[in-house]
Amino acid sequence: xxxxxxxxxxxxxxxxxxxxxxxxxxxxxxxxxxxxxxxxxxxxxxxxxxxxxxxxxxxxxxxxxxxxxxxxxxxxxxxxxxxxxxxxxxxxxxxxxxxxxxxxxxxxxxxxxxxxxxxxxxxxxxxxxxxxxxxxxxxxxxxxxxxxxxxxxxxxxxxxxxxxxxxxxxxxxxxxxxxxxxxxxxxxxxxxxxxxxxxxxxxxxxxxxxxxxxxxxxxxxxxxxxxxxxxxxxxxxxxxxxxxxxxxxxxxxxxxxxxxxxxxxxxxxxxxxxxxxxxxxxxxxxxxxxxxxxxxxxxxxxxxxxxxxxxxxxxxxxxxxxxxxxxxxxxxxxxxxxxxxxxxxxxxxxxxxxxxxxxxxxxxxxxxxxxxxxxxxxxxxxxxxxxxxxxxxxxxxxxxxxxxxxxxxxxxxxxxxxxx
Length: 420
Fold this sequence. Notes:
By secondary structure, this protein is α+β, with helices and mostly antiparallel strands. The protein has 9 helices and 26 strands. The protein has helices spanning about 120-125, 130-135, 145-150, 160-200, 225, 330-335, 340-350, 360-365, 375-410; strands at about 5-10, 10-15, 20, 30, 40-50, 65, 85, 95, 100-105, 105-110, 155, 205-210, 215, 220-225, 230-235, 245-250, 255, 260, 265, 285-290, 290-295, 300-305, 310-315, 315-320, 355, 365-370. Helix 1 packs across helix 4 and helix 4 (about 160-200) packs antiparallel against helix 9 (about 375-410). The mean pLDDT is about 95.
């Protein structure tokens, strides 16, 4: 299709398209919250939507609270297929209602109208979230006033083209959702396998009780101090975002039991405090453990993979090496995802105002079930196969998200036209 373009206030769009204010498409209403002191207003009848209910999903998977039908008499009910957009604090979170609902005052809703395709408008607002955020300005609590929201301009093709664009992007969205479901189901499978393998092992019929629960009779237990060596914390420095010498692993680089190197900080090789940083160089296979962090991240681990340059680590991380005659580092890493490990970490963690921590001595006392190395390897191989499945699906999801972003860029601006 040979497309001719025109310049508008929102940029270059096809000549057949219009730049239209949201108020010209459908009625915009702002929600309200019924009095929480009137119990009769609250019940299980009608979803009450707040910004915390709106997650990365086109529709609402669930809401925390519901109103009674009486509660809707003092609020504005919005019909199915309304587009809800947060306009106070967290600007631009968006969803489509599938049932009659009520929203709180932080949300503006665009009621369905024959002038626009609901899913098309949903994608247009998602694509223009930064422009919507700019309307809020720089205030303590960002706010996009209803009057400003109603004047927000969007690119609007003819209705048949809206339908087709929405259909194409929705197809990719559905593939992302299916992949996400597979990832979650596989993660649940792994969790169940871990509980079974670290309690029952492989092929055992006789068991005994220990301080960390039931284990096969043939297994031993050990403390981490017995199976890990060279447990050492790193250095504390005011690190630079500029590469000034040596990259430094921080607690934020440990995510989901993996090492993530997309947000590095650096320090001088010639340390300003005279410390020999060669004593903190990480070796391939070293285990890294968060021992000073938020309660949610405390105790999280990863294994340092080989890198083309030397790395060191910060003072809120323990570096440890596995005693290869007794335990593999990957077996320990997988044990660190079990309830047995996490409950022991909780028992030694000392909460503080901004962060929690545990001591080197307490960490060394944590107990771990210890099968023979051959069985450890079998357990690792089973769980690694499940991990590989999760990684494959996550990579596929990333590609789908990249595809969706690219499609939105070209389809919602008319750079690529769809055939009707």
